[in-house]
Amino acid sequence: MRYDKGKGVLKNWLVTEDDFDPIFQGKCETIFCQGNGYMGMRNATEERYINQVRNTFVSGTFNKFDDHDVTELPNAADVSNIDIRIDGKLFGLDKGSFSDYHRTLNLKSGEVTREFTWKNQEGKAFQFSFRRFISFENLHLVASKIQIKAINQAANIEFESGINGQMSNSGAQHFHEGEKRIFDKKYVQMLQQTTQSKITFIHNTVHSVNLGVAVVVTSRFFVDRRKVFMTYSSELGTDQTITLEKVSNLYTSRDREFDTLSLQHLRDHSIKEIKLACESGYNTLQILSAKVWAEKWNRINIKIESNDDFNQLAIRFAQYHLLIMTPAHDNRMGIGAKGLSGEGYKGHSFWDTELFMLPFFTYTQPQLARSLLEYRYNTINGARKKALENGYKGAMFPWESAWADDGEVTPVWGAADIITGESTKIWSGFIEQHITSDISFAIWQYYQVTGDEDFMDNYGYEILLDTGIFWASRLQWNDDKKEYHINEVIGPDEYKEHVNNDAFTNYTARWCIENAIHYYHLLKEGKPGIFSRLNAILNLESEIKELEEKLPLIYLPNPDENNIIPQDDAYLTLEDIDLTKYKNQEHVGSMFLDYSLSQVCKMKVSKQASVVMLMYLLENEFTPEVKQANFNYYEARTLHDSSLSFSTHSIMANDLGNRELAYSLYRQAAAIDLGTNMKSSDHGIHGASFGGLWQIVVCGFGGIRMIDGKLRIEPKLPKEITQIAYPVYWKGNLLEVSVNHEILCVKNKGTEPVAFSHLGKQYKVSSNTELKI
After folding, report:
1. Which residue spans within 684-720 are E strands per DSSP?
2. Whole-prediction pTM
């Protein structure tokens, strides 16, 4: 991998693979993934190799393979594969020799290009060029372009390309056979319907082949089982170049703009659109998409000046993936933990969205953040159903969410236990309940940053109240201590199961209850119409009385004589072991090569930030001394086996003045997908880590925080970074913030003055003015 290939206007915009090894295909398939939030596609090469993974996913199109499985995004029919035959032999890089190879993702435009010179076993040499993009101008469109130049001898070139429905999710087939059709001997179409959710996918593709001169191109079409395709054949003379352009589109009956229309209407529309796209051609379509990309970058671009250009590229890489994985077009859909880049986690949404990715959108694209939170509101009936099924009241959100009606979709069984060989039960869907607090916190944070009262009136207050009601019903009375406990949970540290009084869970549950009480009184006094509506739904008059009675009796794990907050009732009593081997591991989860999960549960070791995460979210609850003591204690025992963890520890280290460690952790977070580990991304990108990287740069180094509804800007740059400039929105006003080691500059491009604090002093920057400190 190379990160320094960009020059001039493309400096720090290009990610390049400069050699090809089929063993490591998953790396670039994933990190070169393309998409637009509606659909995403792994960047498998056009030609086929063993162990290749071709995935195309459409947001929100979940299907259940059978009654013993959970719902997942189905792997749709593939249009990326194009078989090339030269003199009748199937082309592959491994079937000859190649040089000058490079495959490049252009983060600025979303286009992937691949070029190389290849010589077959007969000595014929060819120059290959491949280009591909998924459009941000037309969410349904994907296009590719191949050019082959004969360098030293003439040859016969044949392309076989079309729509391949012979796809599965690691063997699980989610589609019926479907209908295949070719119009006018040119336009290829396939209709497939998912087996359980009954969503129809309509694929269309069209090709154009030319050599720049008038020659005969022979074409034929074929229909096979779950496959429909065309072949094009032509003679290619020495120094001649043959070009194949392929334009495809994809629509589904779940698309919001078509869900009330007939299938025939959707089918007619899709064919009309593919004909128009074909007339435009690859270059025009790509320019239109690149223009939309430019508009997006103008709104979110961060500029980093440092002693290593990788820092600039890494944050752009993170933002690129956050954009292509997020369904901005439809509030019925959330973000999958792996985005749309792979089958990992089945396309499900976790707490990753609310605590790691959502702040990026809240501060830079508030409307998109609102859409993601409206998605959670759309799932509230499932959350209420889960609460009732578990004997509680209120809204108990699923640990893993898919379509709004699906409810809890966490798989029940996972990897084999290294000791017993039996499948390990996944308890997260049953007892990892802090997701409810996480969603509540994200809604509150969004409201404080944006001031979006309309969202709160229609969605937000209801969730904040109902999550408080849930937690009050979840509390368990301890008669010996005369206080309420929360027992039998999994906290953010998933290496500890069935624990009592997990610190993160207890503190955030209490926060939810306190918040619900606050907004109950606020609505009752200030918004009687909203209060009356919610009171009828949630029975607030009686429920809030119960919350107020229980609130002062909730047990919170307080700091001990060493200022250490017990992660849970048992953590501080567990066995300390030498973790050096695992802290220095090359691959996450290496501890499970030596121990089972049940053994790890009895050791003083954490998977990821838990108490440290708590101190980041509720930072005003803890003194600097408590923060320092707990950071030191838990950092030494945290393996960062979750990609979520580095960012939280980096921000906290920076807050505590350890900028060297903060920068080191930032670099480790940036290297999860971009680094030298060629197998870390095989199952998909690490979406939460990308959100975490943005938070390190903007909330950590850049100093942006929302504290009790007020803006604070206190940058702390590591010595390796000389300046950062970033945009954020506060209450609808765009702020352009830049900071170096001497000056903080805040420019308000909004219409209202913005107040903020800096090192204990209060400042106000007026509309269309710039303030330097």
Report:
1. 704-707, 710-713
2. 0.97
